[in-house]
Structure formats: structure tokens, C-alpha cells
Amino acid sequence: MKFNTKTIHGGQENIDPAYGSVMPPIYQTSTFSQTTPGKHKGFEYSRSANPTRAALEAAFASIENGKFGLAFGSGLAAIDAVMKLFKPGDEIITTNDLYGGTYRLFTKIIEGFGIAFHFVGMNNADTIETYINKNTKLIWVETPTNPLLNIVDIKKVASIAKKHKLLLAVDNTFASPYLQQPLDLGADIVMHSATKYLGGHSDVVMGGLIVSDKELADKLYFIQNASGAVCGPQDSFLVLRGLKTLHIRMQRHCENGKAIAEYLAQHPKIEKVYWPGFETHPNHSIAKEQMKDFGGMISFVTKGNNYNEAIRIVENLKIFTLAESLGGVESLAGHPASMTHASIPKEEREKLGVVDSLIRLSVGIEDVEDLIADLKQAIG
Ligand SMILES: *Cc1c(COP(=O)(O)O)cnc(C)c1O
């Protein structure tokens, strides 16, 4: 089955043996009856497993070319479950420009349990090897990164991980499986904030993990059940519904993203546009190789790098909504310096490239002429 068919049918065979409904019923129940102790129809208690969630988990596995999918109450809950694979003394190497919430989880909670992190710039994957020692257990990669759209060479990092017998996890939230499938490139774990492109409609918070190794899947299922950060049946249904249009949404996100990146690049008031589709992007050739297209996430900096000017632009936008998050059908704009990255000291933030005038766009699937006109009137 090819990708566009999988988004609609993947893992959905015989979804409702009772009545043959085309969409899985929302099994809004905490528990399931047993005829005699231990004898049931495959489901006992909805933390352990729920049929609607199971349908979604099968779909997750299918679209990422994995064997096993697991759904969680949020993207961070999914990451937290991965962290529970490790013990005090273990070390993890991760990208240095992580999603802020992941950085907070790693540094404020997981480090406190005796697990050490190395935050490493991975534009050149070779630097990773200098951080590997006998305690290293995992490489955690985000690509493209937030908000500067850096690209990490997944295949190359996977070969380093294999050589040293480490696990490789990829946060595939920004790309979605439409653009890249990390398991095929050698990763062991794919993680998603399904809140973003997978759900796609800004109406649910959810996380997912996809793996192919049975032993790893068993460990993660144990953690999912034992720690209990699962999502509910209603949310599972919503994301399953969202998935069915992932491919056509992504196609339009990419088309609109390209048109807007090109518009911004020629605008006289704009200093720099971050988008992996430009040949001038430092890792454009890797993006071209590992991604099907370049996505709908774009960041840009205005000339003069003026904080108030950036605030004025995001306030003036009328179709783009000023909001955190990304990946929904509607276009969003964000100002990292005052929003997602406000808690990082200015000096440190600027070292990462998150300067005062940086604006991040999640380009939606509206008519691109309207989006460009909105940017034009707001930037002036
Ligand atoms: C949003 C996001 C997360 C966290 O997911 P939640 O669903 O908000 O918990 C993790 N990684 C990336 C790249 C994200 O964009």
C-alpha cells in the first residue's frame, strides 16, 4: 500500500465487526465485561488498551512504515515514556535547538533522575561521535528544527547510532511522515506531537510513538500502561479522522510554504528567510534527499532586527492567527523571542539565532494569494 492510501486505510481492516461502520466507533468506556475472570474480547481496561485508540495506533504504525504504534495524551507524554527506558547514569545526545517543551522536560525533570544530556549542534553529524562514551544510550534528533529549520542528516546519524549500538529517536513532528519516514532511514523510534500535522485541525493535544522492534515495542507498551499517560477515545477518533487528509493537507502546506518563502525572500524589508527549500540553506541537499518536499514552516527576520517592529507585524496580521502551535489547516504566526523562547535569556537565545525580530509562520492551506496579501499589508 502506498502512502496516500495508507493515510486512509492503514491498519483499518475489519474496524467494526459488529455493524461494519466505516469509521471506528468511539468506545467511550473505561472498562470491558468479562464472561469469566480473564476471559474477554481483547480489551479489559482502557488505560491498557481501547479499541478506538488501537485503531489509531495501527494507523500511526502504518503511515510511518513501522510495526507498532502507541498513542499518548500529548507529545511530551510520548517523549516522557521514551525517557523511562533509561536509568540513572545513562547519557543522551540531543540536538541543541530542541522544541522548548522537550528541552524543559529533559533539563528540569529527566536530568533530576540522574540521566545526563549533551545538547549538540547536528548540522554536521560527525560532531555527535565526540560525545559518545560507554554510558551513552540514545541519540534524540529533531529535524527540521524549531524555529530555525535546521536539517539533520538522519541516515548519517543512524549509521553512527548503529556503529555504537545506540538507539536513535527522531521527533518527526515538523516534517510528518508525508515528508520523511525516519524508520526507513535507520531510526529506532519515531515520535510525534500529533497535536500538529497528524491531527491537523488544532482541536486536540496528543502524542505518538512508532517502532518496528518487538522488544522495544513491548518495553514502551509496558511503560504506556504502567505510567498511564494515554489519550482518550474521543481524541483518538479526532486524530484518526485528521490522518485521512494528511497527504492532501501536506501537499498544500508545501505549495503554499514555497510561494510564501519566495515572496518573503524578495521583500525589501526582509533580511533573511529560513526555509530548507532554498538552495542557499546550509543543509538543502540533505533536505532534498531525505524529505519529499520542504514543508510549510518558515521563519524570517526583518532588516534592523527591531523587537517592536516584529510585534507590530504579528499584531497586524489578519488571516494568520497569532498563536503558539503549528501544523493546523489555518495559518499561524508566532514571535519566538516573546512567546516560545521568552524564558531563554536574550544572549543565549540570540546565540541560537532566535533574534528579536524573528517571526515564525506555520503556513496553512488557505488560498495562498490571501496569505501573501496578508503578509504584504502587515509588513508594509
Ligand atoms: C508541539 C511539539 C512537541 C510537544 O508536543 P505536545 O503535543 O504539545 O505535548 C514536541 N516536539 C515538537 C517538535 C513540537 O512541535
From TrEMBL:
Molecular function via GO: cystathionine gamma-lyase activity; cystathionine gamma-synthase activity; pyridoxal phosphate binding
Record's GO cellular component terms: cytoplasm
EC class: transferase
GO biological process, one term: transsulfuration
UniProt cross-references to InterPro entries, sorted A to Z: Cys/Met-Metab_PyrdxlP-dep_enz, Cys_met_metab_PP, PyrdxlP-dep_Trfase, PyrdxlP-dep_Trfase_major, PyrdxlP-dep_Trfase_small
Cofactor: pyridoxal 5'-phosphate
N6-(pyridoxal phosphate)lysine: residues carrying this PTM: 196
EC assignment: 2.5.1.48
Record keywords: Pyridoxal phosphate, Transferase
Family the entry assigns: Belongs to the trans-sulfuration enzymes family.
PANTHER family found in the cross-reference section: CYSTATHIONINE GAMMA-LYASE (PTHR11808:SF15), TRANS-SULFURATION ENZYME FAMILY MEMBER (PTHR11808)
NCBIfam families found in the cross-reference section: PRK07811.1 (NF005871)
Protein name: Cystathionine gamma-synthase
